[in-house]
Amino acid sequence: MKKIGLTTTVPVEVILAAGYKPVDINNLFITSEDYSKYIDIAERDGFPKSLCAWIKGIYGACMENDIKEIVGVMEGDCSNTKALIEVLRLKGIKVYPFSFPYSHNKRDVEIEIKKFMDIFNVSLEKVENVRNRLNEIRELAKEVDKLTYVENKATGFENHLYQVSLSDLNGDVDKFEVELKNAVSKIKKRVPINKKLRLGYIGVPPMTADLYKFVEKFNSHIVYNEVQREFAFPRADRASNIYEQYYDYTYPYDIKFRIKELKEQINERNLDGIIHYTQAFCYRAVEDIVLKQQLDIPILNIEGDKLNSLDARTKLRLEAFLDMLLDLKGEAR
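The line above is the sequence of 2-hydroxyacyl-CoA dehydratase; the predicted structure tokens follow.
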């Protein structure tokens, strides 16, 4: 099976229907034991230091892992992806474009997905068959989510990991399904996590995955991972077709649509506070202004750059934020 790289979540049903093995290059980059080498490769090839580490990591991972074809999202994701794609084309990598239309109009979404299906020469019937198969696995991811915020048995990191992996299903649908089933079975047997604070994590998945263990030290449990949950398409079962499914996907569209879902989840999960992660040099950091005005809940914005672990300053800010939330609840640490 020929592999194809993804710069973010795209209609993976189309790719699988075309017989490709999807590889989310973000996951390939950040899970590497020597992830920083990918950033170094990009900077040696001329990428500026004042550019998002994810973009540089994606480039380096493509160069080092023999990825010859990628799907590049031209609209609805990172504004730097367009420039990245031009460089990858220069390096001989074949790029298939896809866009989440800014209009967020159902008809426009349908047009873009039909164009995507035409590129890979697959029928709607075949794509829907794959979608039905993936929705079985997405139900398992929803179970992990419920084990996190309802039964309080899954950790915030497990919630993050299993949902973010739905972007490419780790390249093997059947194997990933078995992994998820085993995880659900194992987590169900645990005693509930007893923490005073219920936190939400919003923003792009973090470079600093140690965030989850760190907050647990302060009587806190992350029970909501916004974008990771969207990657797992928790509402896919309500969609009558692939067009509706990707229309009802909050990540690539306007912030008003995103905020509506955030408000629902804040109430559903009874959150005490939110950690908003943004990446250095990313335009999405500006959205923090809107989020703080529109969401009636304490929010701490933290920023990541090249490090895959929290720095001392961020740890101090997190600790102070969590102490404040405990004070608001009248609880001791």
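Note on the example: The two ends are 52 Å apart (CA to CA). The first strand starts at residue 2 and ends at 6.
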